[in-house]
Amino acid sequence: MTDKNGFFDLSRTGLTRRTTLKGLAAGAGLAVAPGFVRYSQAQSSAPIKIGFQCHRTGIGAAYGRWYDRTTAAAVKAINEAGGINGRPVEVIIEDDGTDPGRGAEVVGKFATQHKTDIVYGTLFSHVVIGSAPAAGEAKMPYFVVSEGHHVASTKLNRYVFQPGITDVKSQIQAMAPWIAANAGKKVTQIFPDFAFGYDHRDYLPPALKAQGAEVIAQIAIPPTESSFTKYFPQIPAETEVIYHVMVGPAVLTFVKELGEFYGSSRPQLFGFIDSLEATDINSPGLEFLDGSHFWEGSPRYAQTDDSAAQKAYRAAVGIDDNGAAVGDPKDVSTAAHMFGCWETLYVVKKAMEDAGYKGPEDRAKLVEATEALTEFAEGPEHPQGPKTFNGKIHQCFGIQNISKVEGGRLNVVHKTKIEDGLYEPEGDYTTQPL
Amino acid sequence: MKEASPAKAYTLHLGVIVLLFTLSFVLPEYHHGLLARIMVLAVFAMGYNLLFGYVGLLSLGHAMFFSAGLYGAGLAVIHLGWSVPAAFAAGLACGALLALVIGLLALRTSGVAFMIVTMMFAQVFYLIILYFAAWTGGDQGLVVPQSARVLVLGDTSLGLTDPTVRYMSALVLFSIVLLAALGIVRSRYGRVLVAIRENEERTKMLGYDIFSNKLVAVVVSGTICAASGAAYALLFGYVGSTFASVQYSILPLLWVLLGGAATTLGPLIGTLFMYYVVDITSGYTSAYLLIVGIALILLVLFFPRGILGTIRQRWLGWLP
Question: Could you tell me which residue ranges the Leucine-binding protein domain spans (chain A) (predicted)?
């Protein structure tokens, strides 16, 4: 193509001194304009801001402390490997006091004051449920590490996800085959008389029935109770397994009194480690648990067959072979749950990279990209094990560990399969508008 | 206390309402949302103040009235699919009825016994919420669906999740309760309540029925607290047993003591102060409750009657 009109001919008289000066001034202005340069830079290297809703105070403080450490370790690892989409990750922490009212305020604060890209890290169910409306209204992706069934129940909203830890319904279902085959077929349940206990009350009987076993008694203990001896005569004599999920400070009394009630002859005991997270298994009064079994999301004690990824994860977070803080054996971790923080942050990274996430205007894309995820392979990003993810119910499914208390430590004796914990979806978040 | 000039008092209160209205247009987004929540909870404190400040009855059970409104409105929406106005009315009715029953029983006591009896009733109410977890959601609580939180006025639908609608709804409730509280304390009835607080025996001797006057005060106080709870459920979309725990009975006491008991604007000042002290200090340290405690001690030392109470005592005797 020829330049017939001399459009590119710089010697043309049309290029006056004034035009030249204007052009030079504009070019120079553009080149030195600080706002423009900074903006360009901000798009490429400004940090991804993650609002961490942390239980620093209140009843969840022990979990909060370890969620905080795991989060810091994961973010350090992510940043050292180049961040998310080439941008560093910055975590902004707000304490929710483990209170649902304050939790909702904190979500609002992240959305409107800190202007974080997502909110993450909540554990206690009532805080998650209390905060979820605020997240939905602010259209703020809210990644929780709670293990409650509330996310998968599809009763929250499209912005709430739980991709890093399995939910309690799945955990209970996965335990049933092992209990029926190895511990006994006549099960008595002892659980706290509030929502955490109700999940076990409602989901265990059908799961056991499917395995040819049965729940022969359910004993609900009021949350205000501090002594349990009077409940033990309600345990039927033919009980082969006591399934217990007591939580809170009363658990030590519960175990001690159960030991006094049964003496040396007792049924099999099966419990959820939630009761004893951040508690030394060798605490006085817990001797009665020797030989009993526990569910663990991720093993507290280092196992002989730990993968390289699991070893690297434990080293990064700073827990020793006994699951306590390196250098402080009394500071016992919440190992069975806190791995969920590590894995959730890697899911966020993956989803943001899939979505080409640039900023809050891409939150809807991030939601869709997260919903599109299906599998997480075991490895450095998912050291607990492989998982599948159901985008319709915003919930992951994974393996579970059954550990035996022996010699003052918890040894994993069985790992379930992902399929053991799968159940029919109860709804579909993806039909909700974004 | 000097006789309050009606014009001055009403001008001040209307001024506060206008100020809150104006703030809606200038506040940054976060503080806008926080102030909406503070106004709703200040209504809770105002309800508490009516009984504590003006009648001198120290209750440690007002969380039950707040949560009666919270659950009355929230469950009506969740389980019965009621509209926002009907659910709000249900919340009010629950609070009023509960306050009537509790008043009839608890007013047989006074002083420390009244405090303990109200605390026990509140604990019973809290455990009832846990017991009927199938309907109340127990300790986890329930979400009030966003789709149901819509106020239909003729042809107009106002989503209560919209920040402006939420702020204005909170302001309307706050304004109505503030002006009503001012009207009550300036009325003949309000003076009887203060007389009961100051000298119950003398008031009785003058021919006033102490029990019925106190009972009306408990019912009005409980209903105002229930209005706050109902508004909380509908505006913020969550009902949970935490709001029925003893902590939420102590909070309004704290807000009222800080702002100034027996002052109409004290509950707002106290709630505002506590919220911002917690909000700001928690950004710096997890030991923020220690700082809150120190702030409270300083306030007690230098503002023994609360912020507005001390201002009234020292400088503005006409403050209602």
Answer: 47-399
pLDDT digits (tens, 9 = 90+) for A330-343: 999 999 999 999 99
Q: What is the mean pLDDT of residues A108-115?
A: 94
Q: Which of A112, A134, A193 sits opposite B29 (nearest CB)?
A: A112
CB pairs under 8 A between A and B: 92
Q: Which residues of A touch B283 (CB under 8 A)?
A: 94
A16-25, A127-136, B142-151, B280-289 — which is least confidently predicted?
A16-25
pLDDT tens sequence across B31-59: 999 999 999 999 999 999 999 999 999 99
Q: Residue A172: what are its φ and ψ, rounded to 5°?
A: -65, -45
Say whether A193 and B130 touch across the interface (CB within 8 A).
yes
Of B37, B146, B240, the CB nearest to A126: B240
Confidence of residue B153 (pLDDT cuts 50, 70, 90): confident
Q: Is B317 part of any domain?
A: no
Tell me which chain A residues have a C-beta less than 8 angstroms from the C-beta of B137: 129, 195
B273 domain residue, yes or no? no
Q: For residue range A256-266, what is the model confidence (pLDDT) as tens digits?
A: 888 889 887 88
Asked if B242 is an interface residue toward chain A (Cβ–Cβ < 8 A), one would say yes
Phi-psi region for residue A408, left (φ > 0), alpha (ψ -120 to 50) or beta? left
CATH 3.40.50.2300 boundaries in chain A: 47-166+337-398, 169-296+403-412
Q: Which of chain A's residues have a Cβ under 8 Å away from the Cβ of B133?
A: 194-195, 198
Chain B residues in contact with A100 by the CB 8 A cut-off are 141, 238, 240, 242
Name chain A contacts of B289, Cβ cutoff 8 Å. Answer: 57
Count the residues in chain B: 320
Give the residue on A whose Cα is nearest the Cα of B132. Answer: A194
Show residues of chain B in contact with A222, CB under 8 Å: 127
Report the C-alpha gap between A282 and A296 in whole angstroms.
17
Interface residue of B165, B238, B290 to substitute, partner A, most A CBs within 10 Å: B238
Within a 13 Å sphere around the CA of A352, how many CA atoms are in the beta-carbon half?
27
**Does B165 lie at the interface with A, CB-CB under 8 angstroms?**
no
Q: Which CATH number fits domain A47-166+337-398: 3.40.50.300, 3.30.420.40, 3.40.50.2300, 1.10.10.10?
A: 3.40.50.2300
**DSSP-assigned states of every residue in B40-107:** HHHHHHHHHHIIIIII----S-THHHHHHHHHHHHHHHHHH---HHHHHHHHHHHHHHHHHHHHHHHT
| A382, A353 contact by CB (below 8 A) | no
A169-296+403-412: what CATH class? alpha beta
Range of the domain at B21: 6-245
Q: Model ipTM?
A: 0.84
Q: How far is CA A294 from the centre of its chain?
A: 19
Please report how the helices B29-49 and B266-281 are oriented relative to each other, as an axis angle in degrees rounded to 10. Answer: 130
Residue B128 lies in a domain: yes
Any A CB within 8 A of B161 CB: yes
Q: Say whether A194 and B138 touch across the interface (CB within 8 A).
A: yes
Q: Of residues B2 and B316, which shows the higher confidence score? A: B316
